[in-house]
Amino acid sequence: MLPRRTVLAGSLTLAAGALLPACKPVMSGMLTGADAHPATYPTVRAVEFMGRYLAERTNGRLGIKVYAGGQLGNETDTLEITSFGGIDLNRVNFAPLNSIEPMTLPFSLPFIFDSVSHMRRVVDSEVGNEVLASLEQHKLIGLCIYDSGARSFYNVRRAITQPSDMEGLKIRVPASDLYIAMVNALGANAVPIPFGEIYQSLAQGVIDGAENNWPTFVGERHYEVAGYLSLTQHLLTPEALVMSKVSWDRLSAEDQALLREAAKASVIEMRRLWDIRVDEAKAAVAASDVKVNEVDTQPFADLMRPVWDQFITSPAQQSVVERVLEMKEG
């Protein structure tokens, strides 16, 4: 009898395969890409940009077809499918990566980044390259790191100005032990729920709130049901674009180099689109009935030391943390 994990992985690959074209050698054809975000989201458009970049430089021999909006499954599922070669490229948040590779955890720590510019500086450095390289042992090639913005709490009940305001709130989190520990440390009750179920869960009272960035708050229409947005900016967790090592190994050395070049160019495009989207989202919220409040984040950050200690358990992880902190502004 096959192990349950193997059976599950095979089932997921077959399910995704129903949506994908017949398998072709990667050396000539359309690469498949997965993204849980909607088709207009900056990460989706950045990978599409990457596909055009490849097509232009190979006379159409290579390109990328992105299946957005979670068509191929949630991030945890598509990550496993990617590792088996059922999907070529996959844009994922660091949360599911935290579950398989400890070296990704430092970038997910609450309050480790003090600004978007700090986060971008870190992920563009050798530290970012080392974290991406750590994924190869999991049959994933880390191509680049995208923004995921500053995440803040929003809810249906009250403004959050201090940690005590979190007490008793049911807050949706991704399926990540670190996110669960963070929310519970603030006195709230962490509720892991799939991304696509947040709106309905807020509307039906299954949860009181969630946490995410400006574009998601607006783009997923969460601001229609959550009337309070408190700018805790507790996480600036980036996102990764990974490629199946199975697919990668089918590429020539020249095409591998071109793919890395295209990924690097897509980061610039993604950030341009992201900054525009953030400004648009802020304008949409300002025109709505949502109550937005600034927050003194230090009392929240002070409660995170046990969370850091829980997840940073090796000298290698600690080294990444120290290098990230050294790159803070000022």
UniProtKB/TrEMBL annotation:
Query: Per the record, GO CC terms?
Result: outer membrane-bounded periplasmic space
BP GO terms, sorted:
transmembrane transport
Instruction: Check the UniProt entry and state the signal peptide residues, or none.
Output: 1-21
Q: Which PROSITE patterns match?
A: TAT (PS51318)
Carries keyword Signal? Answer: yes
- Keyword Signal included in the entry's annotation: yes
Q: Which domain of life is it from?
A: Bacteria
Arranged from A to Z, the UniProt key words for this protein are: Signal
What InterPro entries has UniProt attached to this entry? DctP_fam, TAT_signal, TRAP_DctP, TRAP_DctP_sf
What CDD domains does the record tag this protein with?
PBP2_TRAP_SBP_like_3 (cd13671)
GO molecular function term, any single one: carbohydrate binding
The record's annotation in NCBIfam families points to: dctP, TRAP_S1
What's the protein name?
A: DctP family TRAP transporter solute-binding subunit
Q: What is the lineage of its organism?
A: Bacteria, Pseudomonadati, Pseudomonadota, Alphaproteobacteria, Sphingomonadales
